[in-house]
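Data card: per-record layout.
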Amino acid sequence: MHQVRYFLAVARVLNFTRAAEECHVAQPSLTRAIKQLEAELGGDLFRRERNLTHLTDLGHRMLPMLQQCYDSAMTAKSLAQSIKTGAVAPLSIGLSLAVDITLFILFITELVRALPGLELRFMRGTGTEIADLLKKGEIEVALAGNLGETWERLESWALFTEPYKLVVGPDHPLARKGSVTPEDIAKDRLVSRTHCEHIPEITAFLAEIGFGSESHKVCSENDVVALLKPNIGFSVMPESSARALGLTTLDLSDFDLQRTVCVYAVAGRQRSMAASTLIKMLRAADWSVIERHVPKGVPKVA
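The structure for this 302-residue chain is written out next.
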């Protein structure tokens, strides 16, 4: 990069002596560096005349590109220094598609307040995809249910356990029943959440009670809402997700599936201050409002 810096200085003042003075380097060193750059680029960048040094055609063409190159390098150096000093603290968080981000907004808000330079990056995926992102180092922290992963370096801390519920739209004929039987849903259609960590268990239970295999299939919570609000079937999802989406939860006879939401990280990998702080906040929180099935409020730090 020093060759580029010297070239830009000469291109600006059109004088090798003055450019060397600006760069705080001896003129022979500056001249030698520019000759090396010319050798790499395959042609002269300057026509050297005592009082009329000027750019060649190649020099004119290279000037904007080398200026951009130099500016990008300086930006990268500045960003690296900011990260090193803590002025900028990037944090990549993985979220399961089946986890509602609003459950964690209180903690994220507090984290941003405590670390003004924090830059957050959220990535969504299935449990398998989240585990893969952790392995590759593309995220530092993950919030999800079961990842279906037994990797020995995967660390996890359980936050809360909640039940799965049968859910319908607010105007569904079953919405006021509170609890239903297999007969109540026999003629309805399941809206299957393909991103759910417990699809096999849900499918097995419905098959056991004689429910048909036909279903609508969606891959996001917003799509579930879009189908359930006009009463196009029913779904099965964690209670906290259903409440956040404004759906009606029902108890289904003999159905007692639960999930445990955890915070995940990788053992032995150096963590940023932001990641460590978030993990500590989540582990210290009082999650009883979720486990008591209270519909409003967010867990608060103990």
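Known properties of this structure: The two ends are 52 Å apart (CA to CA). Residues 179 and 250 are 5 Å apart (CA to CA).

See the next section for split statistics.
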